[in-house]
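Before the break, one more example. Copy the sequence into your notebook; we will annotate it together after we see the structure.
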Amino acid sequence: MARLEGREKVTGAARYAAEHPVEGCAHAWPVPAAVARGEITAVGTAAALAVPGVLAVLTHENAPRLGDPGDATLLVLQSPRVAHRGQYVALAVAATPEAAREAAAAVRVEYAAEPHDAHFTADHPGMYAPERANGGVPADRVRGDVTMAFAASEIRFEAAYRVPPLHNHPLEPHAATALWIGPRLRVYDSSQGAGPVREALAALFGTDEELITVVSGHVGGGFGAKGTPRPHVVLAAMAARETGRPVKLALPRHQLAAVVGHRPATEHRVRLGADGMGRISALSHEVFTYSSTLEEFTEQAATPGRSMYASPHSRTTHRLTRLDVPTPSWMRAPGECPGMFALESAMDELAIACGLDPVELRLRNETAREPDSGRPFSSRLLAECLREGADRFGWRDRDPRPGTRAEGRLLVGTGVAASGHPASVSPAAAEARADAGGGYRVRIDATDIGTGARTVLAQIAADALGAPLDRVRIEIGSSDLPRAPVAGGSSGTASWGWAVHKACRELRRELARHGGTPPETGLTVRADTAEEVAVRTREYARRAFGAQFAEVQVDMDTGETRLRRLLGVFAAGRILNPRTARSQLAGGMVMGLSMGLMEHSTLDPGFGDFAERDLALYPVATCADVPDIEVRWLDEEDGRLNPMGAKGIGEIGAVGTAAAVANAVHHATGVRVRALPVLPEKLLPGLAARRRDAAV
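Here is what the structure looks like once it is written out:
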């Protein structure tokens, strides 16, 4: 099935958060802090208020007091304290966006700046052990005696890897349109989940959730940055209440880096001990990272080592320091992406130390049970992904020696990495209705962030109802609909689809009791999956798996690296829609390629903010960078996870790709880059040494 909303999108009929027509709408423009730490001593708004069309300028001095939402990043304009550069300190509201922008530029803010610390190092004196990492996982897990096992290992390898700060940069910036109608608040928000936004707004403005409606009908990308409520929606609602007019606020792209989250820099110290056959006896993965002084967020980057390979002795830990920087948050495959880069790079290096093929090394460390928990996997076809990928890629023809394949001044190499991602499911509720006219309506607060969720949910509903697809109408993207989890963690379709499936099956049974025909008033069934999820998800370790293979060319004179081809083979449960699935998996692989060769942000310690704040300075891969990409998946139906047998596919494509590309670069050049991205300046010293050795 093609996307149900495809025509709406290409014709402009699909309305995004800032595009909903609202009569008498005003516009807002925020003012970011110009210091990294300190206190506001004065705010001058006279010049801003004099701009024609300006309705208000909100600051900490006149903004309404907000309740506690449990997230300090949402408490905007509440205090003169500045926790990081870019934190919002004022908001200009005007009749036009041009006037709002002019007024924002005219606001004068004076600060008492204080010394700040924005310098991240793994040996930062403020490092501590958090109790939990992102997702509620334990920060530390220890099995056996790693120190003893590593020392006794026949083959020992250890290295440090580094992943820089990364930013989500969705095509649609964070935006909201807010309007108050008496005590009721209606918000159109660019969000991955309308429900949590409603909860936050209710807490902030001290009102009942029933009086708030949040609509996230079409979302132009999020990649995690829109997975939690963000300051823009609070500012829009605040401005609408203060001015008595609807307000639109679309954040300027150059401000996003400081206020909507990012993947924090991580340093990884990996130690692997193995016997002469390459079987891992000791696995240690220590992660060092940072968060802001506002909120604790710990990227769970050591967790892949808890589930990917057999390891009788294991230590996976996270250490965190708090800096005067913007608060990190979710970015596509949080934890898994940076953690898998380190682990899969280390596996490549261990294979070389063992004299083994990298695919064979991974196969020798297969496991039927998750090492960390001891639970059996609900399904695990990692070995099959590796074998099929090797066959399709022509891996067995590969000369394992680095730097042996040259085409003129181009060095060519291939690399492999395994990938894994949690296959999570959360409770959800859905409503299914049979109308007297013969059609069906299915309602659930799911969010389609470009993944094709509408289409897949309609297919699940039609299948469960035994009805033609054109008779099923899907309603999603509103907090007024039955509650469902956010579009994140590769759990959306698995969670929403389960609730839709259950509601539709129950409706089908109810219709049978009515002789197959609904009454004139229609027939409605509501279902939730809380009980089933609690029971079914306890028994098994649940993950999707995959294997990525990459071929690259490296110019030995310039160090420029180009991808030649990329293959991904995945085991992600039953694929519900091959068309949208291929798009998701390929998109994830392109994002992983970007991570490997291009993407990076630079946290300037003196400035306290990021230098790369737009898509000119923060390069991402385009079609021209991906000449040949192939996506395959295995037939797998994981009935232990949910009735559809489906797992999430939104993030597994990104996981592993960066390591496959970096491993291919090493095979091409003999130069190992352990700090992403693989830039020419990191390769050139090694390439120059190679030329000197060849000359000798």
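The mean pLDDT is 96. Residues 418 and 547 are 4 Å apart (CA to CA). Try to locate both features in your own notes.
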